[in-house]
Structures are given as structure tokens and as C-alpha cells.
Write a structure and sequence with these properties.
The protein has 201 residues and is mainly β. Helix content is 0%, strand content 46%.
Length: 201
């Protein structure tokens, strides 16, 4: 059997989910003549093949590189383990799907106003923020004060709402004090890639 430490990883050298551990459960480890572990793309993209003889490691840390040392193309892969014993037995196993993803989430945000007065007089009582994002598990939008303390947070699954209105109120509903505030969108995908919009002032 082959199990994975994670189904998604991003071998881009940023220190976050750069590798994945493949655990090889081989009950009989004596009498092995040779073994091979072949990682192949489900749509034909180039993969990686590891081989050995006699002894087989309990796990392999995979760095996301192909046989030539280049980072694998993005996509889904499956690892197949074959073990040949000296007595002729030749069992095999396949791993669950493993996805290589090095593309960070993308987002843009803009606003119709940079100064507003949420005092209920009907004139510039709120701002409208226009948002465009890639499809991700979760997006978080945060309004923060000049010192970086968050005052209002929102979240969306999939894509962020195309339009967001803010009337200067915090999470608990109270009016925030006069001052300068910032807004940004942020998401981290399942492979550990993080993307963020520019900060709106």
C-alpha cells in the first residue's frame, strides 16, 4: 500500500508544502530482488521513477522533480509501486491521486471612494469595493486600521463576491472611529500557495 502525507503540494522552494512523504507499506521486506516506484501524470505529463534492490525504505520524501531534476508540470499524478521477490512474486500498489500546484491564488480589488462619511445623511455613507478572484477553497477579506489591527472580516468559498459595500462598521456592528483604514483579500490554496490583492486605502 502507498499512502500520502498530503494530496496537494507545491514544489516551488518557498518552504511551504515543498515536499510530500510517500509511505510504503510492504509487509514482507525479506527476499526482495528489486523494486520500483513510478510517479506518472494522469494526463500523460512527465513523472519520476525511483528504483532500488534488496531493501525498500519505509517512506520516501518526494521533492516534486522529474528524472532530469526539473519541477513537475502542474496536474494530477499517481504513484505505482512494484516489488519483485526472488521467489517470483511481483505485487504492486497505486497511491491516491497527488496534485502538483505551484500557482498562487489571484485577486484584485478596487473601490469607488477613498474618503467617506458613514453618518447616515445619505451622502457618501458607504464605499463599494469591486473584487475579482480565482476559484479557491476560501477567500478572506479584511478591513484593518492604520496599525494593522483587523476591524471587520468576511469570507467566501469559491470566489469572493464581485461587489462588497462597507458602511464603516466593525464585526460587532459598532461604528469604527474616524481614521485611515485598509482592505485586502487573501487566500491560501490546498497546496500551500498564498495570494493577496493589493491593499486599498
Amino acid at each position: 500500500n502507498i499512502s500520502l502525507s498530503d494530496s496537494f503540494f507545491s514544489p516551488n522552494g518557498d518552504g511551504v508544502k515543498d515536499t510530500v512523504v510517500l509511505t510504503l507499506a510492504v509487509p514482507v521486506t525479506t527476499g526482495i530482488e528489486r523494486w520500483s516506484l513510478a510517479l506518472k501524470g494522469t494526463t500523460g505529463q512527465k513523472g519520476r521513477t525511483l528504483t532500488g534492490s534488496a531493501s525498500i525504505p519505509p517512506s520516501i520524501v518526494f521533492d516534486g522533480k522529474d528524472d532530469q531534476g526539473a519541477v513537475l508540470a502542474e496536474g494530477s499524478y499517481v504513484a505505482r509501486l512494484e516489488v519483485l521477490y526472488v521467489n517470483g512474486n511481483n505485487p504492486s500498489a497505486e497511491s491516491p491521486a497527488l496534485t502538483v500546484d505551484v500557482t498562487a491564488p489571484s485577486a484584485s480589488a478596487s473601490t469607488d471612494l477613498t474618503i467617506f462619511s458613514p453618518d447616515g445623511d445619505g451622502n457618501k455613507d458607504q464605499i463599494t469595493i469591486f473584487q475579482e478572484t480565482s476559484e479557491e477553497v476560501l477567500w478572506t477579506g479584511v478591513f484593518g486600521d492604520i496599525d494593522g489591527r483587523p476591524v471587520r472580516s468576511l469570507s467566501w468559498r469559491g470566489r469572493a463576491d464581485a461587489q462588497l459595500e462597507w458602511g464603516g462598521r466593525a464585526d460587532a456592528g459598532e461604528q469604527v472611529p474616524d481614521g485611515t483604514y485598509f482592505y485586502s483579500l487573501k487566500a491560501t490554496d490546498r497546496a500551500g500557495n498564498t495570494g493577496e490583492s493589493r491593499r486599498l486605502r
